[in-house]
TrEMBL record:
Belongs to the PanD family. CDD domains: Asp_decarbox. This is Aspartate 1-decarboxylase. InterPro entries: Asp_decarbox (IPR003190). Substrate binds at T57, G73, A74, A75. Its main location: cytoplasm. Binds 1 pyruvoyl group covalently per subunit. The modification Pyruvic acid (Ser) is found at S25. Its cofactor is pyruvate. The gene is panD. It comes from Evansella tamaricis.
Length: 127
């Protein structure tokens, strides 16, 4: 049996753009993707801390070093530039390996710079 587990997370990313006229997806700086193991075309969940919206979409690589987090297409209606979002990827883990599974969690500042990397999350995070 397998369980679907959080694999990677960009915590409190700042939305830099919202592009309604694009086909769809989320564009993320490739450096941020690499930090938490998110791949191009991978399905992710996006949670908007400002308005509570939750959506699923796929990832497009953004240019390295630009710190881009851009919601495209219909998802652009659920965010505004400046909103704080959580971007989560998941993977299937064999039941026997679940207890050893450690996700990669990047805590970001307001400029989408990684300020901390974690492999587990505290019960509550105050930032």
């Amino acid at each position: 049996m397998f369980r679907e587990m959080m694999s990677g997370k960009l915590h409190r990313a700042t939305v830099t753009e919202a592009n309604l006229n694009y086909v769809g997806s989320i564009t993320i700086d490739e450096d941020l993707m690499d930090a938490v193991g998110i791949l191009e075309n991978e399905k992710v969940q996006v949670v908007n801390n400002n308005n509570g919206a939750r959506l699923e979409t796929y990832v497009i690589k953004g240019k390295r070093g630009m710190k881009t987090v851009c919601l495209n297409g219909a998802a652009a209606r659920l965010v505004q530039p400046g909103d704080k979002v959580i971007i989560i990827s998941y993977k299937w883990v064999e039941e026997s390996l679940v207890k050893e599974h450690l996700p990669k969690v990047a805590i970001l500042d307001e400029r989408n710079e990684i300020i901390e990397m974690m492999k587990t999350e505290p019960a509550a995070t105050v930032r």
